[in-house]
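Fig. S4 source data, part A: sequence.
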Amino acid sequence: MFPTQNKIVRVAILDLYEGVENQGMRCIRELLDYYAETNGLELVREEFDVRKALKVPDLSYDIYISSGGPGSPLDSEGTEWENQYFHWLKKVESYNNDDSNHSKKHVLFICHSFQLACRHYKVADVAKRKSTAFGVFPVHLLESAKEESLFHGLNDPFLCSGQPRLPGYKTSSYQIT
């Protein structure tokens, strides 16, 4: 992804955990540190408390990681933090749609933020699960996805992991349908 060994990679982590203690942020930090160390990169990361402090990053970062979070991705509709979050997302989208910007911004949406993005772009419905989910799950490709280069080489079904079952850790109660 970054061919130059001396490149500084700037990563913005959008923390949607609302101050709730969790393993997700620790794992994101550790994965970033491990990736930087094993690839000889200088990584600069900054965290933004989206829900409590209403903070979102500017467009000076190379990579954006938007975390999971507690609560319903449906109940936040119209809240100040969500409006600010979607305004930031619109800025990223506008930047990427500008042909004069050759280096695009990349965003990884995790769990809760992925559900928000699906709702925002109206690509899927977010619905309450019959029961909470954790573990490893098979994912089947839709016919239209089989032509997407992103999915080439994946088995059908491929596996994805759900949230770990840890003491005091709530599993996801919502799903994309």
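Fig. S4 source data, part B ends here. Residues 164-170 have pLDDT under 50 and may be disordered.
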